[in-house]
From TrEMBL:
Domain Ketoreductase: 10-182
InterPro entries in the cross-refs: KR_dom (IPR057326), NAD(P)-bd_dom_sf (IPR036291), Sc_DH/Rdtase_CS (IPR020904), SDR_fam (IPR002347)
SMART domains, per database record: PKS_KR
Source organism (scientific name): Amycolatopsis plumensis
Short name of any one Pfam family annotated for the protein: adh_short_C2
PANTHER family (UniProt xref): SHORT-CHAIN DEHYDROGENASE_REDUCTASE FAMILY PROTEIN, SHORT-CHAIN DEHYDROGENASES/REDUCTASES FAMILY MEMBER
Protein name: SDR family oxidoreductase
Similarity remark: Belongs to the short-chain dehydrogenases/reductases (SDR) family.
Domain of life: Bacteria
Length: 255
C-alpha cells in the first residue's frame, strides 16, 4: 500500500489493537508504514509490537506511554479503540456493571489521552488522538444503555479536548456503526442473521474492520491537518427509519 498519508515511521498506539475493529486499525497503520504498539489486557497474535495494559488503570497507562517514549523517542498518534459492553437490560444491570462500562468506554480513553497529550505537547510535531466512538452515542441504545451514554460522552469529550489541547494536538472521533468482526455472531447470531442485519444498512452490509482503520488513518494523517474536534460517522448510511417499513404509501415498486 502506498504511504501517501505520510504515516511512514510514525509511532502509533492502538488500544485494544489485537482483535476485532482494533486489529483492523492496527493492520491499516502497519500497511502505511507506521510503527504500531497494540495494547490489550491479554496478548494475541499480531504483527505489531504488543504491550500488556489495562487502560482503566492509571499506573499501567502511565507505564505504557512512558515505555513507548523510552523505546521510540516519541508518540505521534493514539487511537483509543478499547471498549465494549455486554447486552443487559438497564433495569437488570447492576450499578457496578454500569460503572465498569462507563469506566472502560469514557474514563479510560480520557486517561490514555491525558498521558499521550503530556508527551505530544512537548513534541515539535505535536500529535493526533482518534477516539473510536459509536453510533450508540447518537441514538437509543437498548440493552447497552450505559455504553451508549458513555459514547455520547466520548463525542463531547473529543470536542472539548480539541479546544483545550490545540494547536499542538488534534483530537477527533469516529462514530462507528455495525462491523463484521470475529465476534459478530455474539451480537447478531447466525451467519444468516449477520447477513440479514447487514441488509438493514443503506450500503447493504456491515463494515469490515479495515474500513474503520482507513478512516482512523486519515484523521491521524497530515491530510486532516485542519480537522480537529470532529466526529465522523462511519455507519454505511445509518439506519433506515423503521416507520418506512410499516407505511403503505410511497413505496418504490421494484422493476
Amino acid at each position: 500500500m502506498k504511504t501517501e498519508l505520510g504515516l511512514a515511521g510514525a509511532v502509533v498506539l492502538v488500544t485494544g489493537g489485537v482483535r476485532g475493529v482494533g486489529r483492523g486499525i492496527t493492520e491499516v497503520f502497519l500497511a502505511h508504514g507506521a510503527h504500531v504498539v497494540a495494547c490489550a489486557r491479554r496478548e494475541a497474535p499480531t504483527d505489531a509490537e504488543f504491550a500488556a495494559c489495562d487502560v482503566r488503570d492509571e499506573t499501567q497507562v502511565a507505564a505504557l506511554v512512558e515505555g513507548i517514549v523510552e523505546r521510540h523517542g516519541r508518540l505521534d498518534v493514539v487511537v483509543n479503540n478499547a471498549g465494549g459492553a455486554p447486552y443487559v437490560s438497564a433495569a437488570e444491570a447492576s450499578p457496578r456493571l454500569h460503572e465498569k462500562v462507563v469506566q472502560l468506554n469514557l474514563l479510560a480513553p480520557l486517561l490514555v489521552a491525558q498521558h499521550a497529550n503530556a508527551v505530544m505537547q512537548r513534541q515539535e510535531s505535536g500529535g493526533s488522538i482518534v477516539m473510536i466512538s459509536s453510533v450508540s452515542g447518537t441514538r437509543p441504545s437498548p440493552g447497552t444503555a450505559a455504553y451508549g451514554a458513555a459514547k455520547a460522552g466520548l463525542d463531547n469529550l473529543t470536542a472539548s479536548l480539541a479546544v483545550e489541547w490545540a494547536p499542538k494536538v488534534r483530537v477527533n472521533a469516529l462514530d462507528v456503526g455495525m462491523v463484521r468482526t470475529e465476534q459478530a455472531h455474539l451480537h447478531y447470531g447466525s451467519a444468516a442473521a449477520v447477513e440479514a442485519v447487514g441488509k438493514t444498512v443503506p450500503l447493504g452490509r456491515l463494515a469490515e474492520p479495515a474500513e474503520i482503520g482507513h478512516c482512523a488513518a486519515f484523521l491521524a494523517s497530515g491530510l486532516a491537518s485542519y480537522v480537529s474536534g470532529a466526529t465522523l460517522r462511519v455507519h454505511g448510511g445509518g439506519e433506515v427509519p423503521a416507520f418506512l417499513a410499516a407505511a403503505d404509501v410511497n413505496h418504490r415498486e421494484d422493476s
